[in-house]
Write a structure and sequence with these properties.
This protein has 341 residues and is of the alpha+beta class. Helix content is 16%, strand content 45%. The protein is built from five helices and 21 strands.
Amino acid sequence: MNNFSVNKAKALKILTVLAIFASLSLGVYSLAAKDITISIDDEKSEIVTYSNTVEELLKEKGIAFDSNTYINTPLDTKLKDNMNIIIKMPKSYTLTIGNEKSKIKSPYENVEDILKDQDIKLDQKDYTKPALDEKVKPETEIQVIKVKEVIEEFEKDIPHKNLTRKSDDLDIGIERIVQEGQNGLMNVKTKKIFENDKLVKEETIEEEIVKKPIPKITEKGTRNVASSSRGNFRYRKTLTMAATAYDLSYQSTGKTPGDRGYGVTASGTRARAGVVAVDPNVIPLGTKLYVESLDGSKDYGFCTAEDTGGAIKGNKIDLFFSSSSEVKNFGRRRVKVYILH
């Protein structure tokens, strides 16, 4: 055997010894005790372990965990001396979003962190009860209020005003419309705020007049002095009525001389010129009147409401004349009746 072969054999033995030594060293290292700090929900404990990975350590110590458990390092992480392992156990909460309520688990105590853990995103105006920055205890109900703003635009009527002005050109008690009213139109923009689809607030944010309203104008008569052939007289009201005429004939009264009540009015007075029959619901008996013709003929003039008639209802008046010829000539006319003071 030459020297080269001898040297080669020696070198091989040396490498084998080194390999065995390295392997033993690694085994000793892996089996070396390690000081580990474990924090479970902020409760710390110092332990010595020969486990190789985080998962092995948790199983060794009987620490239960699931997918909701927070561990600050992956389970397959190799343990190192003086390593700090932080564990947060999942806690139960009630989560309410609108009308939907569910049970959830999260290792966090802060509302914002719990929602992030559940992958729940809030829009800008959404809010929670309790507030996002609050810490909560297990079994607490966390409400998520979803806020939605809706802008609506519509048109609405602007009611017209009713204006009344006095007029000396009209008799007292008479009214005349001189301008018909018209409603205006307004464009309105409102903002509605909904919380979990329930309307909680509505406010007007803009109003624009599209068409202005036109007021209704009514003239109300104030004239209470009229002229007649006997001079001026004051009155408090006027009525336009249908006028007929009657006398003491059988055709007018259904009575003949000698009949009971012949020639006697409903007031108990004698029928005569200047007596008129009225509906007492319109003109009370005993009221002093002036009857003016509206067709240019002679006025009946001053008279007193003392009688009634079966056909005299509403705005009707029956004028007494002394003769049948006057009754016939009068016929039926429209008259203006002044109710005197």
